[in-house]
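Q: What structure does this chain adopt?
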Amino acid sequence: LFRHQDLHNKVYSMVIASTRWLAVRADFLCAVLISAVAFASVLLSQHPGKTIYGLNRQIKLAMKNIVYLKS
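A:
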């Protein structure tokens, strides 16, 4: 009975670890993609000053939400 439970606990631990590994990689990939699109839009815009201000404001709001959600 204990060997059976031990085997399932090992498998469950591997599932949790692999899920977290995949989640971290997916979050990193999404952050890189969103950053690339945001900076490309700034570089290709006709009014870079206004676009940089809007991007800066959006980043500040996103960081505020992240801090709010963690606390």
